[in-house]
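stuck on this one:
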Amino acid sequence: MIAILLLHRPVPVRDLTEDFLRATSSAAAAAYGWIGKGDGKAADGAAVEAMRNVFDTIPFDGRVAIGEGERDDAPMLWIGETLGSRQGLEAAQKVDIAVDPLECTNHVAYDLPNAMAVLAAAPRGALLHAPDCYMDKIAGSPILEGEISLEGSTQYNLEATSHVLDRPISDLTVVVMDRPRHVDLISKIERMGANVRLIGDGDIAAALDAADPDSSTDLLMGIGAAPEGVITATALRGLKAPFEGRLVTTTKNHRERALKMVGDRINNIWDRDELCASPDAVYIGSGVCAGRVPGVHKNSEGSMIVTSEIVDVKSSTKSIVERIL
């Protein structure tokens, strides 16, 4: 009896990394054909369909904990959607997914950097289960752990970063998404004398850059999408780099849904290990357009090569892998 029970014990989520890599790689390859064609919606739809088709073959009982859409918002992988070939089986590994089948949809449409197919996976209940609203975020390199926080002002965080890195504020670079909502934030950063690097989309790649002590990015600040925040938190937990997020609702519907899903924690500042509450987790980002990782390209035989960045949270390891499709 003991032997039988051991045979049916669910495998760790991290053991499914190769399967999840198939999902993101397939989504990236599907979006590749739409690069530069000005149709982000079609690219997104192709990525979603490809990713969902692979998920259906993976032996797990999955759920979209947070993603970009709900059941009526096709072609998205909707929040609460069940995934995998072992749905409902007691012995199956129950996994939560935070996912964006095509991060930077507009970047694919106009052939701009850092479009990726991304996901984070962890045991059921370990990833924040929240609506697809916005999230205020801050991220930096591991040396800034415990030094930066959304509880502090822009001035506080810049001064703390300057002190810890032993560099003048004028030498710091902060990445902010180029949005009207950030006019005040950008003004505060510039008044402090720091450099602002504006991006159109792609704050997952920007946060990963901020987490890299050798990059030219020191901080990510500002409001982006909540699903990307949870995905980023998973990656940065594995990299031992600081990340915090706070939900931002801009509509009555979003607020009502958020209250239903997170209750009185709606105004919480969530740290990295609350957004991803298990070390048995993995982050995968597969490049579509070149940027943090190379974009999809074809070899001499016409096969597509997809490059992906994988962060194994438990082992705190990062790897770059290529798949030929």
About this structure: The chain has a mean pLDDT of 94.
